[in-house]
Amino acid sequence: MIKERHNTALGLAEKVRASLSECRLCPRRCGVNRLKGEVGYCGLNDKVYCFREMLHRFEESLINPSHQIYLAGCNLRCEFCSVSEWNAEPKAAMEMDAERIALKITERKEQGARSVNFLGGEPVLSLHGIFDVLARVKVDTKVVLNSNVYFSTELFETLDGFVDIYLADLKCGNNQCAVNMLNANNYIEIVQENISAAARSDLILRHLVLPGHFECCSKPVLDWIAENHQDIKVSLRGDYAPPVKAEKTPNKYLDKSEYEQVVIYARELELNLIQ
Asked: What is the CA radius of gyration of the chain?
């Protein structure tokens, strides 16, 4: 079984890499030739850049402890992103050694990792590198795709059979906030469509509660979940950290009362909250 997955992963790595000649992995659909060193909005060429790997014990309990593999480059520009420097300059990170990362997955599993968690940035932009790694992994482990899900919906066909858990973000409840804070057009329509596709598999949906954004973001996000995916697992995050220079995002930490307001509303909607 593992050998079969290895061979399939190698084939998919080649398929995704070939598509980089006219990259349309995300809704920006830049169309640049990353194979020739051209870069689009994400700042990535055909190489994969990894800026951190670690065993992490503070994700959702269903995936803890989680082996996190951080891949540089992103197609959003969240002003409050905690790793924004690696998204602005992804090629400043080290080029990923797929064989080394595969060995680290084995090592981290021996240390207690219950999953391997590809995140970023936005890991889908480096999907060929993820498949390169999975083609070399010699242990059976759950694969988590920790994604902003602002990517091309047709990728689900490629991901099917390799992603065990989608850990997806639904950051905003309306397109205007998404434009202001994420620099993303048509965010709501694209992300909701992708969440609905991911919900056919095992999905954990995260929502980061933002100060002052209950009516415009948290409430419509929770309403949409209740109306469309009542039973999915929902993780409400209260760990918002304001950027040093907050221009279009909240410039303060989240009050406990604001977080509790969102939790209470989610419970009123009878959502499946997890920690």
From this structure: 18
Query: Which residues of the chain register pLDDT less than 70?
Result: 1-4
Question: Which residues have CB under 8 Å from 10's CB, separation 6+?
Answer: 131, 132, 135
Per-residue pLDDT at 51:
97
Question: What are the start-end ranges of the H helices in the chain?
Answer: 2-19, 84-88, 98-110, 127-134, 156-159, 175-182, 187-198, 219-228, 256-268
Percent of the chain residues topping a pLDDT of 90: 94
Separate counts of helices (H) and strands (E) for the chain: 9, 9
The answer to whether 273 and 267 are in contact (CB under 8 A) is yes
Q: What is the pLDDT of residue 1?
A: 52
CA distances from 53 to 36, 49, 122, 191, 261 (A): 28, 12, 15, 27, 35
Q: How far apart are CA 171 and CA 208, in angstroms?
A: 6
